Amino acid sequence: MSNRPLAAAGRLLPLLRAGLIAGVIVAAAAYPVVAVTGLGAKATAHAVESKTRLLATALPAETSYLYAPDGKTVLTMFFEEYRQYTKLADVSPHMQQAIVAAEDNRFYQHHGVDPKGVARAFVANARSSGVSQGASTLTMQYVRMALRDSATTPKEVQEATAQTPIRKVREMRMAVDLEKELSKEEILERYLNSAYFGHRAYGIYAASEIFFSKTPKELTPVEAATLAGLVKSPSQYDPASSDQKDATARRNYVLDNMARLGYLSPKAAEAARGEPIQLRLTYPPHDCAAVPEKWNSWGFLCDYLKNWWSAQPAFGKNRLERLDKLRRGGYRIVLSMDPKVQAAAEKNVGTEGNTGSPFANGIVVSEPGTGRVKAMAVNRTYSLEVNENPLSSNPEAGPNVRANYPNTVAPLMGGGDLPGYQAGSTFKMFPMLAALDAGMTLNTTFNAPHSYRSEIYDGWQPSNASGAMSGTQTMWSGFGKSVNTYFVWLEEQVGAERAVRLAEQLGLRWRTDVDRDHASPAKANKWGAFTLGVSDATPLEMANAYAAIAADGRYCEAIPVNAIYNRDGTPATFTTPGGIEREIAKPRCRQVVSADAARAATDAARCPTGDTPAKGSCGGWSTADSVRGTVGRPVAGKTGTTDSTRSAWFVGYTPELAAASFISDPDNPFNAVGDGQSQIPIAAVSNTLRDALKSTPTRDFVPPSDRIVG
Questions:
Q1: In angstroms, what CA-CA distances link 201 with 204, 330, 687?
Q2: Can you tell me the distance from the alpha carbon of 337 to that of 365, in angstroms, rounded to the nearest whole number?
Q3: Among 65, 247, 403, 432, whose CB has the most other CB atoms within 10 angstroms?
Q4: What is the reported pLDDT for 42?
Q5: Is Lipid metabolism there in the keyword field (predicted)?
């Protein structure tokens, strides 16, 4: 037997010891290319074939786009890899030819592995005692990129990219198998959409936009050659660097190859070589901080969208998986906000010229019957730049902690991890609604004293804000005047736990240890102060809870989107526990209380606003009697203040919209806003409803039945 193969192998041992891929090249050269699929143990064959089939259908990560309600205006994007998948028909033929010329001259002749390329690389690498040339075809490169992009663990990423003989053999085998599954055009399309071109540009769409501010279909031969040259080493051949020498040389190499392959005439190639590289750099917006300045306040709703998304099981098992889906899934997301309503909200909380106060005045507007958030605004600038903010008003915050104004991205209106603000007497809605749903009537009467001692609540003794509130009250007058002692007594009759559970059914969540403790099954029935609004709540929660009352007791989860589309244009869906497929962006509603109970609560809630109920008497005065005149149509709602007016609220609604506004210091709840500013939320809601509903036909509330009136 000849000893020549042994001698050749001996000469290559130093290369193998260095961890180089020459051994793989030797193996590939020693056998016919068609036999590459036989390399490797049988135990791994099935796994490789399964992975190849998966790669034949897998698509790379793609940028998700957030649109304004018109479904056309892009507000921002979410991505880890900026990429938009582009069909080969929408890519300039020059670009298709340039990438072949740059990376794989024999792409259309081989079947996944190029035997001539393998042999050439083997010889060159043996002569140089290293790896001076590779043998990777476009198909092999695509396999490597697809394995990397589809990896779900660090180990899989390492296996896909490690410079090892095992990886190279697997890559060759999968490339041969993949060419049996996909056409050359399909492989080229996937390659162009997977390759990295530098400057966060993944795929040809992103590269065309970032470097030349145009679509892939518009690329000229010079531009195509420039981009194709980047794939080998995006940093070394970066044309946006101060010195374009390397980038130009690489581009010219590609142009020469294009001419040699017949894609360009020698004359055209020579002319192209003489052109300078002329860039028109564009950097895509990313995340909510990149929402255009003219729509700055929309950043808060964008931020809420992210928090909402991260809580949806349809997008993954946990928060990290869901946000990863947002950044890689290629979704088209249309915000639910109504620009007219948003403009009214921004105007009436002073998003411009009123951002320099420690007191945040925010508003959320929700749509009854859908739960869609129509507006979200606060007297703050949505910005990550907080270095120029003054120091926090909270003495316990520390010496160098910045306040949340004028710039912040904190979720001050809800939807995030902030607990909210004590909502005061706006909570009186919950025991009243619970009592009505339990069978009590609007005419339920109690002679409410100025101070009331509760034996059920262990001798707790609340008082009214004014002596004028004492006397015989019904639900209409008690709600209109905000009589504490009437509602503590009413809560006793229906049971505090019933009111607490109803608030939960209407979307409230307890975010502090104190609130969770009081709301627990063991203690909820003793939570007498619940009706006075000692719990923290957010404007988002309160607007949505009151929207359910406007919708005849039908609660709809708060939702920040009108539509969510998959990358293929189909609506994004999820499967319910009952096995029903539903669109993620569709309203999710359920009946929480009877329609008659909700209508009765609305009739009483017309009293605080100065409106006239359909069936009863408000008792002569109310806490926000200017609202009806401002809104100019039937309106219901409730005021709320806390001890020492640390915060003030108003929640109001018409049949079309529900709005909740607050004023408080988010940094320091003990920094009281004072009685002088308690009218600000009332004005914010009433003016916003007036402006938002201008030119909208007036609708009246449906009156309650005589049975529930009593």
A1: 8, 15, 46
A2: 9
A3: 432
A4: 45
A5: no
Q: How far apart are CA 595 and CA 110, in angstroms?
A: 71
- pLDDT averaged over the chain? 90
Percent of the chain with pLDDT over 70: 90
Query: Cβ distance 365 to 688 under 8 Å?
Result: yes
pLDDT at 45 over 60: no
CA 88/CA 193 separation, integer angstroms: 9
- Strand pairing report for 471-473 and 360-366: unpaired
Residue identified by tokens 């509603």 is 589
Q: Which two tokens stand for residue 243?
A: 């010195």
What's the rounded Cα separation, in Å, for the pair 524 and 526?
Answer: 5
CB 285 within 8 A of CB 76: yes
Residue type, 255: L
Average pLDDT over residues 11-23: 38
CB count, 10 Å around CB of 242? 5
Helix (H, G, I), strand (E, B) or coil at 463: strand
| Partners of 360 in the β-ladder | 664
Query: Which residues make beta-bridge pairs with 640?
Result: 649
At 54 the pLDDT is 66
CA distances 23 to 19, 39, 133, 239, Å, are 9, 13, 14, 36
CA–CA separation, 627 vs 686, rounded Å?
Answer: 6
pLDDT in tens, 230-258: 999 999 999 998 899 999 999 999 999 99
Instruction: Answer whether 76's CB lies under 8 Å from 326's CB.
Output: no
In angstroms, the CA 331 to CA 570 distance is 10
- pLDDT average, residue stretch 320-349: 97
- Structural domains in the chain? 80-274 (1.10.3810.10)
Q: Which two tokens stand for residue 595?
A: 């329609």
Tell me: cis bond preceding 406? Omega within 30 of 0 counts.
Answer: yes
Q: Are 640 and 509 in contact (CB under 8 A)?
A: no
Position 99, amino acid = I
Q: Token pair of 30, please?
A: 């020693």
Q: Which of 333, 309, 335, 318 is nearest to 571 (CA)?
A: 333
> Are 194 and 145 spatial neighbours (Cβ–Cβ below 8 Å)?
yes
Residue 560, SS3 per DSSP: coil
Residue 24 pLDDT greater than 70, yes or no? no
Segment 516-539 shows an average pLDDT of: 97
Q: Give dist(CA 551, CA 656) in Å, integer.
A: 9
Least confident of 148-157, 356-365, 448-457: 148-157
* Strands 381-382 vs 407-408: parallel, antiparallel or unpaired: parallel
Most distant CA pair in the chain: distance in Å?
A: 116
Query: H-type helices in 201-244, by residue range?
Result: 204-212, 221-230
Q: Which helix (H) or strand (E) holds 617?
A: none
Task: Kindly write down the DSSP assignment for every residue of 667-684, as one continuous string.
Answer: S-TTS---GGGTHHHHHH
The answer for residues whose C-beta is within 8 angstroms of residue 707's C-beta and 6 or more apart is 441, 596
What tokens appear for 64 in the block?
A: 């998700």
pTM given for the model: 0.87
The Cβ of residue 575 has, within 10 Å, a number of other Cβ atoms equal to: 10
CA angle 687, 598, 473 (to 5 degrees): 85
* Residue 253 exposure: Cα atoms within 13 Å on the Cβ side: 17
**Cα angle 19, 21, 23; round to 5:** 100
Three-state SS at 64? strand
Distance CA 459, CA 528 (A): 10
Three-state SS across 1-13? CCCHHHHHHHHHH
- Residue reference for tokens 């919708």: 551
In one-letter notation, the amino acid at residue 394 is N
**Cα 483 to Cα 467: distance, rounded to the nearest angstrom:** 10
Contacts for 677 with CB less than 8 Å, ≥ 6 apart: 359, 645, 648, 663
Determine which helix (DSSP H) or strand (DSSP E) holds 641, and give its type and residue range: strand 636-641
- Distance, in Å, from the CA atom of 681 to the CA atom of 684, rounded to the nearest integer, reads 5
Check residue 468 and report its DSSP letter. Answer: G
